[in-house]
Amino acid sequence: MNSVEHVSPGSWTYPGDQSHRYTDQEYWTDVARTAERGGFDAVFFADVRGVYDVFGGDRETAIRKGVQTPSNDPSYLVPAMAEVTEDLGFAVTRSTTYSHPYQLAREFSTLDHLTDGRVAFNVVTSYLESAAANLGLDGRMDKATRYDRADEFLEVCYRLWEDSWDEDAVVRDAERGVYTEPERVRAIDHEGEFFDVPGPHGCEPSPQRTPVIFQAGSSDRGREFAAANAEAVFCSQPTERGVVEYMDDLRERAAALGRDPDSLAFFPGIVPVVGETEAQAEAKYEALVEHVDVEAALALLSGFIDMDLSELDPDRKIEHIETDAIQGTMNAFTKSDPDREWTVREVAEFSGLGTTSPVVVGTPEEVADELEHWYREVGADGLNVKEVVRTGSLDDFVDLVCPVLRERGLLPEEPRGGTLRERLFGAGPHLPPDHPARQ
Ligand SMILES: Cc1cc2nc3c(=O)[nH]c(=O)nc-3n(C[C@H](O)[C@H](O)[C@H](O)COP(=O)(O)O)c2cc1C
Q1: Is the pLDDT at 193 greater than 90, yes or no?
Q2: What is the mean pLDDT of the chain?
């Protein structure tokens, strides 16, 4: 996140942590250079509207402890980070609940132009009640309505990005004085339940037209939405079993919708803690755990699942509910391993390092073994490497683990070039023909 902290509450107190520099452009251009040097395909930016005010019924804990607040808009980092890199992609989270599709389509087209086709849109529907009032709404829409709106939102965006301008609309014919052939630019005439957008799109086609679509829907309705739209899926479950169940289910749903199930790329979250020796890695892990702020973790989780965890006895077992907030966080502790029960205290302690993703502690070879296992045996297409300490976690990973991955042929020797979509999927810069947006 473009904030002091994302999902490792308390990590900003770790000696030397640089996350307070999130307001400094140079901090981000350094991150971009490091990620590109490591061979990452993209940097993934989560983004959240509202403040975490479920815990204890107010925002005090979240504000005091820097729980995803303060935070800035990630979109504006992209041009700066793109300027200092050649190949790195940028997955930017935006909410379909709190934006307008005509405006958002323009913003992503602009970013796609400025980065030569290196952007992705992580489509979220948001979950914090506190966001709604600031944006003129009476309250948070229920989940079904949020996803209905998201369906229509993407339909409008797809039509603006894909249908509104022909590839050869811009002719720049100075002799005739024609910049754009008007008959090659069309209205979309969208009239729907949530939006009326006549179009046409204001931007000429960008290298990818539609940015690479990321999604992480985890409820039943959310999975249906992901299966229909996602090209790349970010998921966060603490066990392999939880991730495999999720991937299999989404692939099945995508196939039922007429999509090639193997065209969806899955990026489970993982939290590496690496040291040059096992003892160093262990010591680093212990030091990180010492800096976990359990109360801040509870404030974060309370927002994720919309349940005030301050009211529960720390030794009480977590019981499954269907939440109007993030179902995946709930499932992580109630479904990901059916043989395990979690107490509130255990959940808070585990979540301190990257919330619901597995923590891998070891030497560069051991961490590389684990990542290779996720790729070869579990069936992940890549991994979403979550930072704890900034920028120490990323620096360690790039300096110690990436060279091992490269030696093993798991990272390309040289960047592959092209747009983000070409690099991730090995095909063209535009959406594949079986994607619903192209139907
Ligand atoms: C792995 C993962 C990452 C997410 N990242 C974000 C985010 O960056 N910003 C956000 O507002 N919501 C995020 N969400 C939540 C989505 O906004 C979604 O609305 C929410 O999960 C409710 O739908 P669901 O229960 O179908 O997942 C994320 C959810 C998951 C599972």
Answers
A1: yes
A2: 96
Closest C-alpha residue for ligand 1 atom 3: 216
Residue 242: helix, strand or coil by DSSP?
Answer: helix
User: Which of 44, 69, 124, 229 gets mutated to test ligand 1 (max ligand atoms within 8 A of its CB)?
Assistant: 124
CB atoms within 10 A of CB 372: 14
Of 203, 68, 43, the C-alpha closest to 120 is: 43
| Closest-CA residue to 150 (of 224, 251, 225, 233) | 225
CA of 299 to the centre of ligand 1 (A): 16
CA torsion sign for 315, 316, 320, 323 is negative
7-61, pLDDT tens digit by residue?
A: 999 999 999 999 999 999 999 999 999 999 999 999 999 999 999 999 999 999 9
Which residues lie across from 92 on neighbouring strands? 45, 121
pLDDT at 92 over 90: yes
Q: How far is the CA of 303 from the centre of ligand 1 (A)?
A: 11
Q: What is the DSSP string of 9-60?
A: TTGGGSTT--GGGGG-HHHHHHHHHHHHHHT-SEEEE----S----GGGSSH
Q: Which residue stretches of 117-170 are H helix? A: 129-134, 143-158
The model's pLDDT over 309-332, given as tens digits with 9 standing for 90+, comes to 998 998 999 999 999 999 999 999
Tokens of 175: 């002799």
Residue 439: which pLDDT band, with cuts at 50, 70 and 90?
A: confident
**pLDDT higher than 90, residue 397:** yes
- Cα distances (angstroms) measured from residue 434 to each of 176, 254, 261, 423: 39, 10, 10, 19
260-268: average pLDDT:
96
Domain ranges for the chain, please list them.
Answer: 11-165+192-415
End-to-end alpha-carbon separation of the chain, Å? Answer: 34
Q: Could you tell me what percent of the chain has a pLDDT over 90?
A: 93
With H, G, I as helix, E, B as strand and everything else as coil, classify residue 270. Answer: strand
* Residue 71 Cα distances to 23, 51, 331, 386, angstroms: 9, 10, 27, 18
**DSSP symbol at 119:** E
CA–centroid distance, 68 to ligand 1, in Å, is 14
In the CATH hierarchy, which fold is given to the domain comprising 11-165+192-415? TIM Barrel (3.20.20)
365, pLDDT greater than 90:
yes
